[in-house]
């Protein structure tokens, strides 16, 4: 089995961390100077490893193996949140590089083909998972043309500024690959809580959003009697609390829901509010609990609207993301490698966060591997993982990659 | 009985409306150029009526009668909300002027002493009821020194800019007065709804405020399971909804409560909020329902805090305003005058909004008279009342003033 080089792995991770470093974190949003510098450095690193490397027209960096046979795509994203942690997608990107190097250094695996990748803008500066969407042909011209960041910069201008205007865009060669494996920090506390070292992702949870708009009547908080009020906030509190009471009856064990963004107008102590809005987001690894939650919402909204007074309008606040199952065969390879290096200390688990693998899975068999996040913290300068966990995860991934490719390239009947 | 001059009354009201007019409303906040222009105009008008007139060191305009005997103080405030209606306090100010003129024009009442007043900053640019607080000696140096408007302007600077630095401040000569009567638009819909023309205010409701602070733990909305969450917004929704369910059991018929201002941090769709705060304001004409509501709040907060998770801290958000009963004798005079001019079309009613009379009542017998607000609208450019209602209210006030002063100045035994 191929052996990774822990020092080389950690050294490259730390070098990538230094590009856009701020305090303990990293500020390297997609298409920023730091992001493009990181991508050029990565392209060079891929080339030093013997890969044929390209930065495509949306900023994806692909390192293509010159070996024959079915290839495995390994990677993640190197862009960060506006104030991001140092590991997040960077971990999976450097794992890809190290897996290529580890397999190349071992006689038993040196002929296997591993392509390494860093997708662009997973973190939604312009379009979440822009790079993997573009690679899989699911980035529509309308979405691309309408894409503007929070500061009002248009995607087209960011592409031009990054020197990518007119640069060809890659398309995923599905026939080339046995699959895609993305490693990532967990971004949650489950592995740490249970003392486990590796998560083999069973599915990426689906996500739906509903925006509620509450319309009542603004009034004086002293002179308007209760019976006459149409208080938008009162109805918001009722609906939100009843959702929190009802959802557990329909939810699966890992269903999560959040009402973390709201607005009350005019938001003054002495004024009965006439308008409010509220976002509900809910996630699960399968559709059934999400459907059940939607039915509860519809029932509660209908019941409150039937009373008159404040009206509630409920509309989807985003395109739903369907739950995505990870490939069972790839999971099995990762699970075996995990059991070898961390016996009894790994588990199957869904991913509560979305990842590029969710888009790639529509084109290729895909899988994910998690390592523990200290304190479950992510999207924060404090994000971190222990060196030994980082090293272990990469070794598991290298073993799994070798075993996936050995199986995929075995002569029929021999496999 | 003295007869008011409807044309003169409406003409002066319209002139005052023209100072700071904007669209259908008025922008004349305390100490603004328009406010000070209105006060100088009012001082001149008082003088033309034969009153001895002063603008004092906080901007109060007092017109003092030269007649002997017990005097009646009549007026309200001429400052407005940032985007105010044209009547609000202006109505009661011009009523005071017209009552002086009407009594002076009638042989039976020409020797009675009516002082007219326009208080400063009732609308809380710096300190709510600044003028009546100053007159009654209840404006503390600490409150005055700390007073800053929403734009960061200090009261001391506004006073200097208005030319009032060093100008003497009046103190209410309690022994001079038989009482104080303030007329005002209702600012609510009750008179209009019941087809009544005059409200005789029985009390000004008391007001208490509680600020709730909710402390939980901010987290990722995808990777943090429900059982592990400490979601500040979830607890806010629960407490607010349960208050709305429980208060009706303790509330009097006219108890009102409002939770119209809140903040959730970071207020993002995909983040479990770790912090929230919420203001509860509640009002009633007597203390008992307010006490009962406070007990409910204490019970709910204790119950939720006992569960652990998100903690709630509940503290008074303001100095409570106790309910203030209006003087029964003065109410009787106003009620008799109302019955004379609008038989069967008046009622006793509490004032849900606070007024200068609430402060003056601590020093003098005080009363209030309401006229209908069209649609109950106030603190808005659309605020209005019908001319005939404006005229009727002033006539009732003039009659009541004559009768109050006649009684107060009657020889003992003759009354």
Please sum up the structure shown.
2 copies of one chain form a homodimer. The first copy, chain A, is of the alpha+beta class and 415 residues long.
Break the fold down into its secondary structure elements and pairings:
The structure is a homodimer of 415-residue chains.
Chain A: H1 6-18, E1 21-22, E2 25-26, H2 33-48, E3 52-55, E4 61-64, E5 71-77, H3 88-104, E6 113-119, H4 130-135, H5 141-146, H6 155-161, E7 177-185, H7 190-194, E8 198-204, E9 206-215, E10 219-220, H8 232-250, E11 256-265, E12 271-272, E13 275-284, H9 287-306, E14 311-316, E15 324-325, H10 328-341, E16 346-351, H11 357-360, E17 366-371, H12 387-409
Parallel strand pairs in A: 5-6, 5-7, 7-17, 8-16
Antiparallel strand pairs in A: 1-2, 3-4, 4-6, 8-15, 8-17, 9-13, 9-14, 10-12, 11-13
